[in-house]
């Protein structure tokens, strides 16, 4: 990358962070650091655009201690969304989510009719809602439900709320997002009515986590745990609470930018940096067996 293009990239990243990052004081520290490093030629030694993106990402996270911040390079230039479209990073986003089963890796019925769903990503609500509905309807008659988030990287808070709607019988408040730019609050809640069949709120839910579990997946775990709706099993999660949007400092470089912080109505807090603490700590590899045994025990005690 030539000097002029590098200056444009760093300047645009600085401007986006300064205007939109969730904490204004941290945004100022990031901006000052990037400007200083640019002026001293700190990025000029990068041999490729991918290396440059990684170097900027490392610096953003070093200054902010926020694992959400990320710069990524793509050889294919970004195609801007039409007005009203959901902002996405990939030009082939729809194809991508179809290829990964709309974030659902597996649905299974274990012995004693214990339902199991392995979620790898909570895909944007407008793309995933009907598939969440189909999955939860299929699992609705299970005696207990295990939700596996051990390999879930996160996703859309609206999808979190949609999934939670199948685990409660009526409208229930979840975490709200406190937005920096206009000081508004985006309140999430379950729905009074959903298509398909609810699993409901009477039967037990066990939620599996690993340290890898992050972002929107942590929101799902945190909100269900705070409501006493799920038993969380496994490892403390990664600790990425802030809600993000994609922006493009240049057509080939995307910036994942945290713009809001969630506040749960019960804890009046969130899981940023601390992660979600499991109710039953165990190695992630043992979490499924632990959850299954707990479900079997619950069913025997109920009989």
From TrEMBL:
The record's annotation in SMART domains points to: TSPc
Boundaries of each Tail specific protease domain copy?
93-283
Protein's name in the database: Interphotoreceptor retinoid-binding protein
